[in-house]
Design brief:
Layout lengths: L31 E5 L10 E3 L2 H8 L11 H4 L7 H10 L6 E5 L16 E2 L16 E9 L4 E4 L2 E15 L4 E8 L8 E4 L4 E2 L6 E7 L3 E7 L9 H4 L22 E6 L1 H6 L7 E8 L11 E2 L11 E2 L17 E7 L5 H5 E9 L10 E8 L9 E8 L9 H5 L3 E5 L4 E5 L9 E5 L1 H4 L11 E3 L3 E2 L2 E4 L2 E3 L19 E4 L2 E6 L2 E6 L7 E7 L5 E2 L15 E3 L43 E2 L4 E3 L3 E4 L4 E4 L13 H6 L5 E4 L17 H4 L9 H12 L10 E3 L6 H14 L3 E4 L24 H11 L6 E5 L2 E4 L6 E4 L1 H15 L8 H4 L11 E4 L5 H9 L3 E6 L3 E4 L15 H18 L9 H20 L3 E7 L7 H5 L6 E6 L22
Parallel strand pairs: 1-3, 1-39, 7-31, 33-38, 39-40, 40-41, 41-45
Antiparallel strand pairs: 2-3, 4-15, 5-7, 5-14, 6-7, 7-13, 8-9, 8-10, 8-11, 10-14, 11-12, 16-17, 16-24, 17-23, 18-19, 18-38, 19-20, 21-22, 24-35, 25-34, 26-27, 26-31, 28-29, 29-30, 32-33, 36-37, 42-43, 42-44, 45-46, 47-48
Helix pairs in contact: 3-14, 11-12, 13-16, 17-18
Length: 978
C-alpha cells in the first residue's frame, strides 16, 4: 500500500494491515487423453473422469479378452481393450484427470464401398434360393404348434401362424437347413432337409438343423427352446461370428465354421406356447427382394444411437369410438448420448407419477422419468437415473428438455470437428431429449401428459391368404418384395410341393401344378406388454408398470435375457425416425412397419368381476376403457415402461478386434477403411487445444504408421502434448493374427524395429515410444495378458509425477521400476529380454528400452523423444517440463488479456510469471530463468498492434543418464593426497 493512500490530518502513528499470507492457487492439473474401446459409455466424444472409480462407472472395468460365452447376444469381449488398462494405470496414481474417448465404428461421409462400417455376411440371399442355399445370408426359423394347423381340404393347406423363433447368419459356402420329416397328417416318414421345407419336430420336441461348411462338412444339431435344458438352442449352436473368418485368421482352421446363431426370441415363444410341444417349422431367408442391402444380413453403417420411439399424449376428445392411439399428439422421444447398442441391451425407461394439474394457474401436469436396468422387474426396480416433477411447459424450470438436456454432438466432416447442437445442457449420462416442435413452442394442449408410446419398428407379419401373399395388416395387397422374407423356389410339405408362380402359390405333387393354395401367417416377434396389474403378484397393484414387460412369462418375476433381441436394428439402412413416414415405412424399407404397436394408458380397463385393471388394445375405441385419464390417475395407475431400440456399435463383429491393425493394412484411408476413419476422427476430436485440455495423447495398441504419425502431428500442432505411440510388429497378439507357434508372435527384433523407425523419418520432440511389450495380470479375473508398452508408460508417467514432479525422468529404478508397481498395474514379464547391446541399439534410434534384470526386475531404461537432432528437447522429462511451463504460463497470462498495454500491466504480468518460474526452479525443474518484458520486447509498434511480447529463457534441469567413474588401482605405498 502506497503512503499516498494514508490520510494524514493530525499527528499520530498510522498502521495498515497487509495480508501476504494467501496460499497461491495451485497450478491447473492437466492430464492425458486416452482413445480406445470400452464396455459402455459415451462414445466418439471426450469425457473427463477424475478417478478410476469414476471411469468404471462411466465406461466399465478392464477387459482382458478371450471372454467367450454368448458373443453375439452379450457382446464381443474376445480382444483386450487396452484403453481401459491405460486409464487404470494412469488413474491409480490420481495426479490429474484423464479424458477418455470411447470408440464406436464410424464411416466417412464420402466412403467407398470398402469403407462402410459395420458387418455383413460374405454374400446375401437371393429370391432364387432353393432347398440347399449356397450363397450366405440371414435365415429365420418360423415355428407353430402342430395342432393349430388345419388339415388339407378343398385344395387348401393352412399352416396357421408361425412365429419367428431364431435367426442364423450364414457366410458364403455355408448353409443351414431344417432336417426331419415333412409335415402333414399322416407324417411323411421320408427324411429330408432344406430351406422352405415345412418339417415336424421329433418326439422329444426337438428340431434338427443341418449346418455345413467347406471345412467341417455337414453336421446335424438337435435343439429346442427350453433355456433350462442342455438342448437349448443357444447352447447347441455357435454364437461367435468370428468363427466365420477365413480359416486360420484368428483361430485354428479346424474351428472355422460358416454360420452363427443370432437372435432368438424365447419370450415370444413361451407366450405363444411353442416351447416343449409338438410343432413344425420352416426356415426361410430374411431380407427384402426390392432392396438386398436392406436384408437382415447387411449391417453396414456407422454406429447408431439407441432411442425410444415417440411418447404420446392422452385422448382429450372424449370421442372414444374414433380413437386411434397412433393419432395422438407426439410429445418427445429419448435418444442415447453415444452408447450405441449398449443402451437397448441394458436399459429401459419408465414414466411414472403422472399427475394432472393441481393448480388454477396452469393446466400443465407433472410426471417422473426413470431410466431403469433392463433386467430389473416391477417387483424390484433398479434405477440408473431419475428425473422428478417434469413438465411439458416450455416456460417452466422443470421443462423436460431443460431438466434432462437436449444437446448433442455431431461430427462435421468439412471442418473435421465436433459441433454442438441443442439448447439445454445434458444432465443425463445416458440420454438426451428430442421435443416435438409443437410441444416445444407451447402450441399443444397444456393438459397433455406422456400417456403411451409408439412401439419399435418391426418387419411386417406376412399373411398368405388364398393365392396372394398379403401385408402385415391384411388390408393391402402388395407385391412379394413388400415382405421381409425371401420366398425360396419351393415350399414343400407332405408329398406335395408349393411352387411359386408369379404371385400365386400352387400346390401339388412334385413336378406338377394343380389348383389350390397355402394359407397361414408368418409372424415377427415383439416384447410382451403387461396386460394385468396383478401380474407378478405385486402387493400393491398400483405399483405395476404397464407397457413393455421384460419377464419370462406374464406372471413371472424373473428377467428374460431374450427381450433385447426384438429391439435390434433390423438392417443397416434404417432411418433415424421411421414414424415420420406413417404406418408404412418408405419404399427403401419395404417389408418393415414403422412401429410394431402403439401402447396407450387410454386402453386400460377395469374388470368389474375381479376389480383388476387390465390393458387391452382397442379398449378405448370399443368403449370399455376406464374413460377419462383423470379417472385412471385418481385410481393410482400412473406408470408405464417403454423400450429403447435400434442401437448399433458400427463394428465388424466378424473379427475379435474391430480395430485390428492387420485389417487396416498399409494403404488404409478414411475413405476405404472404417476402422481407420474411426480412429482418425477420434484423434481429430482432440486436436483443438481450446476444446480439450491434455498434455499426453495415447491410443494404446495402435501401430498403423499413418495414424501414429498423425498423433504426433496433432501434438506438434497443438504444441502442448506428447504423443505416446506403439510400434508395429513388436508383438502380434492373437486378435491380430493366428499363430500356432507362439514364438512367431515376436514380429521383429531390436535391429529391425530400429531400422523401421529410422526409415519413417520421424523427427519430433512431441512423440516417444518404448520396446518391448509387457505382461500384466488382470486384477478382476487373474488372467495374464500381453499389453503394449504405452499402457505401462501411462502408469509410469503418472506415478513419476506423484513421487516427484512432471519434469523428472520417468525411467530408472526410482521411478521406472515396473516390477515395483510404477506402472499402476501388475507387470509380470516382457515379451523379449533385452541385452545391453540391443538396448544401446534401440536407444540410438530413439526407442526407449524396457529392460529386465535378474535382481532388479523390469525397469524402464530410457526417456528419449523421437527428435533426431540433439538438444534438451530430445528427452521426455524436458519436453514434459516445457509443455507444463507453456500450459501454465498461458493460463496465467489470460488474467491480463484485454488490459491496457502499459507498464503497470507489464509489471502485473511479471508478478504472475516470475514467482511461478521461481517455484519451478526450487522444485528442480529449471536451473535458471530470465523473463524480459520491457520496451525492447514490447515496442511501440507492437503496442499499436495490441500486442504484448515477452521473452522467457530457461535452463532445464537435465537427468543423469550416464554415470562415468574411474577406478584407479594404486600401489600400496601410493598416497591418495597426491
Amino acid at each position: 500500500m502506497s503512503v499516498k493512500n494514508f490520510k494524514f490530518v493530525s499527528p499520530g502513528v498510522f498502521i495498515n494491515e497487509i495480508d501476504n499470507s494467501f496460499i497461491p492457487k495451485s497450478a491447473v492439473t492437466i492430464g492425458p487423453v486416452v482413445i480406445g474401446r470400452a464396455q459402455r459409455g459415451l462414445a466418439m466424444q471426450p469425457v473427463t473422469v477424475e478417478s478410476y472409480s469414476d471411469f468404471v462407472t462411466m465406461f466399465g472395468d478392464t477387459v482382458p479378452g478371450n471372454g467367450g460365452g454368448d458373443i453375439y447376444r452379450d457382446g464381443n469381449y474376445q480382444s483386450p481393450m487396452y484403453g481401459t488398462y491405460a486409464a487404470k494405470a494412469f488413474l491409480r496414481a490420481n495426479v490429474a484427470p484423464l479424458t477418455y474417448v470411447r470408440l464406436l465404428g464410424t464411416e466417412n461421409a464420402n466412403k467407398t464401398t470398402a469403407g462402410a462400417a459395420g458387418w455383413e455376411t460374405t454374400d446375401d440371399p437371393g429370391s432364387d434360393i432353393s432347398g440347399t442355399p449356397t450363397n450366405g445370408g440371414a435365415y429365420g426359423l418360423f415355428v407353430n404348434v402342430s395342432s393349430s394347423t388345419s388339415a388339407q381340404s378343398s385344395g387348401v393347406f393352412d399352416f396357421g401362424t408361425a412365429s419367428l423363433a431364431a435367426i442364423w447368419y450364414v457366410d458364403q459356402e455355408g448353409s443351414v437347413r431344417l432336417s426331419g420329416s415333412l409335415f402333414h397328417t399322416p407324417v411323411n416318414t421320408n427324411l429330408t432337409s432344406g430351406v422352405g421345407y415345412v418339417l415336424q419336430n421329433d418326439s422329444d420336441y426337438l428340431f434338427t438343423v443341418t449346418v455345413s461348411s467347406s471345412l467341417q462338412g455337414e453336421r446335424d444339431i438337435k435343439f429346442g427352446f427350453d433355456d433350462s435344458s442342455e438342448t437349448f438352442i443357444r447352447k447347441r449352436f455357435n454364437t461367435n461370428p468370428q468363427l466365420c473368418a477365413t480359416a486360420g485368421a484368428f483361430y485354428p482352421s479346424a474351428s472355422a465354421v460358416r454360420y452363427w446363431l443370432g437372435e432368438t426370441f424365447e419370450q415370444d415363444l413361451r407366450d405363444s406356447s411353442l416351447v416343449g410341444v409338438d410343432s413344425y417349422g420352416v426356415i426361410l431367408p430374411l431380407g427384402t427382394n426390392a432392396n438386398a442391402a436392406a436384408g437382415a444380413h447387411s449391417m453396414r453403417r456407422s454406429s447408431m444411437e439407441g432411442r425410444t420411439s415417440w411418447f404420446i399424449g392422452q385422448d382429450l376428445s372424449g370421442q372414444t369410438g374414433s380413437y386411434r392411439p397412433e393419432s395422438m399428439q407426439k410429445l418427445f422421444r429419448l435418444i442415447g448420448r453415444g452408447h450405441g447398442e449398449w443402451l437397448h441391451k441394458n436399459c429401459k425407461v419408465s414414466i411414472e407419477k403422472l399427475r394432472q394439474s393441481n393448480t388454477t394457474t396452469s393446466d400443465y401436469g407433472t410426471f417422473s422419468l426413470v431410466l431403469r436396468q433392463l433386467s430389473d422387474t416391477d417387483n424390484k426396480v433398479v434405477v440408473l437415473e431419475r428425473f422428478d416433477n417434469l413438465t411439458l411447459d416450455p416456460t417452466a424450470p422443470n421443462f423436460v428438455a431443460r431438466k434432462i438436456g437436449d444437446k448433442y454432438l455431431s461430427w462435421n466432416t468439412s471442418e473435421d470437428r465436433l459441433k454442438e447442437y441443442g439448447d439445454y445442457n445434458n444432465l443425463s449420462r445416458f440420454v438426451r431429449v428430442e421435443m416435438n416442435a409443437d410441444v416445444e413452442a407451447g402450441a399443444t394442449d397444456a393438459q397433455l401428459l406422456p400417456f403411451g408410446y409408439f412401439g419399435p419398428p418391426k418387419p411386417k407379419d406376412l399373411h398368405l391368404s388364398g393365392t396372394q401373399p398379403g401385408s402385415g395388416t391384411g388390408t393391402t395387397d402388395p407385391a412379394l418384395d413388400s415382405s421381409f422374407i425371401y420366398y425360396p423356389a419351393q415350399l414343400a410339405y407332405a408329398n406335395t410341393t408349393a411352387v411359386l408362380s408369379g404371385s400365386t402359390l400352387h400346390r401339388g405333387p412334385a413336378g406338377t401344378n394343380v389348383s389350390g393354395s397355402l394359407t397361414g401367417s408368418l409372424k415377427f416377434p415383439q416384447v410382451r406388454l403387461r396386460t394385468s396389474a396383478s401380474d407378478g403378484g405385486l402387493s400393491d397393484p398400483t405399483k405395476a408398470y404397464f407397457g413393455m414387460q421384460t419377464t419370462r412369462t406374464a406372471t413371472s418375476t424373473t428377467h428374460d435375457p431374450s427381450v433385447a433381441d426384438p429391439h435390434r436394428l433390423w438392417f443397416g439402412s434404417f432411418p433415424d425416425d421411421p414414424t415420420t413416414y406413417g404406418s408404412q415405412a418408405p419404399s427403401a424399407l419395404s417389408g418393415v412397419l414403422a412401429w410394431g404397436y402403439v401402447f396407450s394408458m387410454d386402453d386400460i380397463k377395469l374388470d368389474g368381476l375381479t376389480n383388476v385393471y387390465n390393458y387391452a388394445s382397442g379398449a378405448r375405441s370399443g368403449g370399455t376403457s376406464v374413460g377419462a385419464y383423470t379417472t385412471l390417475l385418481n385410481a393410482g395407475y400412473d406408470s408405464f415402461t417403454a423400450p429403447f431400440w435400434g442401437g448399433f456399435d458400427g463394428w465388424n463383429i466378424l473379427v475379435p478386434d474391430p480395430l485390428y491393425n492387420v485389417g487396416m493394412g498399409t494403404s488404409a484411408t478414411v475413405l476405404n477403411s472404417a476402422p481407420y476413419n474411426t480412429i482418425k476422427q477420434a484423434i481429430d476430436t482432440v486436436a483443438d487445444p481450446e476444446y480439450v485440455n491434455m498434455n499426453l495423447l495415447n491410443v494404446p495398441g495402435l501401430t498403423n504408421d499413418s495414424l501414429t504419425a498423425h498423433m504426433i502431428n496433432v501434438c506438434e500442432e497443438r504444441a502442448d502434448a506428447l504423443a505416446l505411440i506403439d510400434l508395429a510388429n513388436i508383438y502380434i497378439p492373437s486378435h491380430e493374427r493366428y499363430y500356432s507357434d507362439k514364438s512367431d508372435r515376436i514380429g521383429t527384433t531390436p535391429t529391425q524395429a530400429s531400422n523401421n523407425l529410422r526409415d519413417r523419418r520421424i523427427d519430433s520432440s512431441y512423440g516417444c515410444t518404448f520396446y518391448p511389450w509387457i505382461q500384466t495380470r488382470d486384477e478382476m479375473t487373474g488372467r495374464l495378458l500381453w499389453i503394449p508398452p504405452s499402457v505401462a508408460m501411462m502408469g509410469v508417467l503418472a506415478s513419476s509425477e506423484r513421487k516427484s514432479e512432471i519434469w523428472f525422468a520417468p525411467a530408472g529404478f526410482n521411478r521406472g521400476g515396473l516390477s515395483e508397481g510404477a506402472a499402476g498395474i501388475p507387470v509380470t514379464g516382457v515379451t523379449e529380454r533385452l541385452t545391453s547391446k540391443s538396448r544401446d541399439l534401440l536407444y540410438e534410434q530413439r526407442i526407449n528400452p524396457i529392460a529386465s534384470f535378474p535382481s532388479s526386475g523390469i525397469v524402464v531404461f530410457g526417456q528419449k523423444t523421437l527428435q533426431e537432432r540433439q538438444s534438451a528437447l530430445d528427452r521426455i522429462n524436458v519436453r514434459r517440463l516445457v509443455i507444463y511451463l507453456k500450459k501454465q504460463i498461458s493460463i496465467l497470462s489470460t488474467q491480463i488479456l484485454f488490459e491496457q498495454n502499459v507498464q503497470a500491466t507489464w509489471n502485473r504480468f511479471k508478478s504472475l510469471i516470475e514467482p511461478f518460474l521461481a517455484n519451478v526452479k526450487t522444485r528442480f525443474g529449471i536451473t535458471d530463468y530470465r523473463l524480459i518484458l520491457d520496451e525492447s520486447t514490447t515496442t511501440p509498434d507492437l503496442i499499436d498492434q495490441n500486442i504484448l511480447y515477452a521473452k522467457i529463457m530457461i535452463k532445464p534441469a537435465r537427468a543423469i543418464e550416464f554415470i562415468a567413474i574411474d577406478f584407479v588401482i594404486a600401489s600400496t605405498g601410493a598416497s591418495f593426497d597426491d
